[in-house]
Design brief:
The protein is an alpha+beta fold and 711 residues long. 26% of the residues lie in helices and 29% in strands.
């Protein structure tokens, strides 16, 4: 077999976006057309390296020549290459490009156009001149790395300053709703909760961080003002990403939908890049919490260092711990992490001496939760919970934007050619129209001068009706109703068993939500709590109860099962979903090989019977085991989940009764975990399967485990 020919192509561009703007018509997921003075014979195998001007690899592929052009002196000289294999980075790049450029989705190499990337081998011709028409800018769905006018990736950004001392546990406790779109803080005085206002006098603080032109970080309303002019350096929706590994499927699927750049933190978590600096999502959330803390201190007139912070009920252990870490970075001692639906139920039932079952429907900017609670005076017991951490107001906005871009294409007979600033203006207009249609039946969406084509300015001017909005978003509302039905079914409940439905979150104002809730439960939802403020007010009431050390009993449940991966890639639940908290479970694990000195347990959280379909939480390694025949050495692993869904892990070797050295690792890649499970399946006989009790593993317990086991 003839060895493949190596072909290196160096581009005169520094970013993937510049390449696509100039030569995007000449690349697809299936191949690429290259201009070259010396073409290869069809059928020739090629190893292609396509690199940016800075040397970064853009596409690395094994390919084969399928056609040539200009070999008889006619027209452009070049060749079409069909990709045979692509590395992962190249595949992600082409997948993201296809989201914004429909032709890229083709699995065949493109036919030649007037331009094409130049081969930099010795026989290559010079790069072609640029096209006469201005290059089209790409929509935000393409990549988080587009450079916006007036902002470059090298803007100097300030370092995040971590606190040097632990926060004090003195003074008042405030309640904080750390939201996807907006955050809200409350304080209860004499059992009367009140919302703390922003510097501008609003009841909420936008959950946005931006790097301004002077290289300073701005928070809240100033950051929102910059979102329209510089989305590249404005972080929003961080709540969807916090506590997740960068290389997880979830992050890889959504990272290109944000205008700012999402990258990997040193520990492997998802992080964001602003200018020349990387910030973890914990640091981004901490900056918002610091702003809220400063507002509280100004309005209460005394130092604030303690808080109750709410999280979506559907958050996994890593995400909850990440929020705790954000509180620490904001110099706040987090007295309690509480689920948002539980906090909303507190705001609803406080002081009313109720005895009823309620369902809290919490549809916010980025997440959805549904929880059934049983209220008995001051006892609030969660019966069942469910949700979706990728379903919220942002998805409703995106549905409208997609429709608006389709309207543009139909009207002007061309794809939208505006830049990220223009697209952000459209997104902002879509959000405003969505809110307006909660109170009216139609709304004009007019965005002037959003792009220039052939030196002529173009506007976007369409009318969106409530009926059309319902058509665009009814599937999203149906997803929330399906979650409500599943939450009821998991505990054998019927809609008629629910006395009240409490709506929480800004998106719950949508008229279709009210219609669907009324249809499902046979009665309209309650209107006794404020959708935007209920969670923060409930958190402040819990904070008040903690200060007084009496008054409220909260009984929560585990939102998703926690368990371990077992050979064959299966998932063994250890603590089931909806188990009342706190809970303590033990599980016996035996060695599967002779003289085995180490046991390794991979831990997941989720509801799938396939380990890889669930959220990977970490790996527990038990070392220095006594030697013996297979199955003769056993270790009892104990998992304790607190009332906040936070975990402690301990292990003891049963024969000697001594504790085992345990090392906790949380950064194995999904691929490494999958390979380990498959290896275990091949090595262990069926009778040796002894699945382990294991739960969400947190970085917070590194030090705890080391001190406990002497590691």
């Amino acid at each position: 077999m003839t060895a493949p020919i190596g072909l290196s192509v160096k581009l005169p561009f520094g970013t993937p976006e510049e390449f696509l703007q100039k030569y995007g018509l000449n690349v697809t997921r299936g191949g690429i057309y290259l201009r070259s003075k010396a073409v290869k014979t069809p059928g020739t195998a090629v190893t292609l390296d396509l690199k940016l001007s800075n040397g970064d690899r853009l596409i690395h592929a094994s390919a084969v020549v399928v056609f040539v052009t200009g070999n008889k002196g006619e027209g452009l000289s070049g060749m079409g290459l069909k990709f045979v294999t692509l590395d992962e980075a190249s595949q992600r790049f082409l997948d993201s490009a296809s989201a914004a450029m429909p032709h890229v989705r083709s699995l065949e190499p493109p036919l030649p156009k007037n331009v094409g990337p130049a081969d930099t081998s010795p026989d290559a011709i010079a790069p072609p001149p640029p096209p006469s028409a201005p290059p089209a800018q790409l929509p935000s769905q393409l990549s988080g790395r587009v450079i916006v006018e007036g902002a470059t990736s090298q803007v100097s950004a300030p370092a995040f300053e971590e606190p040097t001392v632990e926060p004090l546990r003195t003074g008042p406790i405030i309640g904080i709703d750390l939201g996807t779109t907006n955050s809200c803080a409350g304080f209860a005085k004499d059992d009367k909760p009140q919302v703390l206002k922003s510097r501008e006098g609003y009841n909420t603080v936008p959950s946005l961080i931006a790097l301004n032109a002077r290289g300073k970080l701005v928070i809240g309303h100033p950051a929102r003002a910059q979102l329209l002019t510089n989305p590249r350096l404005t972080v929003y929706g961080a709540k969807r990403l916090i506590g997740r590994a960068y290389d997880s499927d979830v992050v890889q699927q959504i990272k290109d939908k944000f205008a700012y750049e999402i990258c990997a933190a040193p520990n492997g978590d998802a992080a964001v890049r602003l200018g020349d600096r990387t910030y973890t999502l914990q640091q981004i959330s901490a900056l918002i919490l610091r702003e809220v803390k400063e507002l509280a201190q100004l309005q209460l007139g005394e130092p604030v260092s303690r808080a109750v912070i709410t999280v979506p009920a559907w958050y996994n252990d890593n995400q909850r711990q990440a929020v705790r870490e954000a509180g620490r970075l904001a110099s706040l001692h987090v007295e309690r992490i509480v689920n948002e639906p539980t906090a909303a139920a507190l705001a609803y039932g406080w002081g009313r001496k109720l005895s009823q079952k309620v369902l809290v429907y919490d549809l916010g900017g980025g997440t959805f939760d549904a929880s059934v609670l049983e209220l008995n005076d001051t006892v609030y017991e969660v019966v069942s919970t469910g949700g979706d951490t990728f379903l919220g107001g942002l998805d409703f906005d995106n549905a409208i934007v997609t429709w608006l871009l389709a309207q543009w294409a139909a009207l002007h007979k061309m794809d939208f050619q505006g830049d990220r600033v223009a697209l952000q203006r459209i997104t902002d207009a879509a959000e405003r129209a969505k809110c307006a249609l909660s109170e009216r039946t139609e709304q004009r969406i007019h965005v002037p001068f959003i792009t220039m084509i052939d030196n002529k300015p173009f506007d976007l001017d369409v009318v969106l009706t409530r009926a059309k909005l319902i058509e665009l978003t009814s599937a999203l509302v149906d997803r929330t109703i399906a979650v409500c039905g599943e939450v009821l079914k998991s505990k054998g409940l019927k809609p008629s068993d629910i006395q009240e439905v409490i709506l929480v979150g800004g998106q719950s104002r949508f008229p279709l939500v009210h219609e669907k809730i009324t249809e499902m439960f046979g009665k309209p939802p309650a209107r006794s709590v404020h959708p935007d403020e209920a969670v923060a007010l409930g958190a402040s009431l819990l904070a008040r109860a903690l200060e007084q050390k009496a008054g409220v009993v909260l009984i929560d449940v585990l939102p998703m099962a926690i368990g371990v991966g077992i050979p064959g890639g299966r998932f063994k639940p250890i603590i089931d979903r909806n188990t009342a908290l706190p809970v303590k479970r033990t599980h016996l694990h035996r060695t599967t090989r002779d003289d085995q000195a180490e046991l390794e347990l991979t831990v997941f959280q989720g509801e799938s019977d396939r380990a890889q379909a669930n959220e990977y939480l970490g790996t527990l390694k038990l070392t220095d085991l006594p030697r013996g025949p297979r199955g003769s050495v056993s270790v009892t692993v104990t998992f304790e989940v607190s009332n906040e869904c936070l975990l402690k892990v301990s292990a003891k070797e049963d024969k000697t009764g001594r504790e085992v050295v345990a090392t906790l690792t949380t950064r194995d890649t999904p691929a490494a975990v999958k390979a380990k499970l498959e290896q275990d399946a091949a090595a262990a006989p069926p009778t040796a399967l002894a699945p382990v009790r294991s739960e969400g593993l947190f970085a917070r317990f590194f030090a705890w485990l080391r001190s406990l086991f002497g590691g």
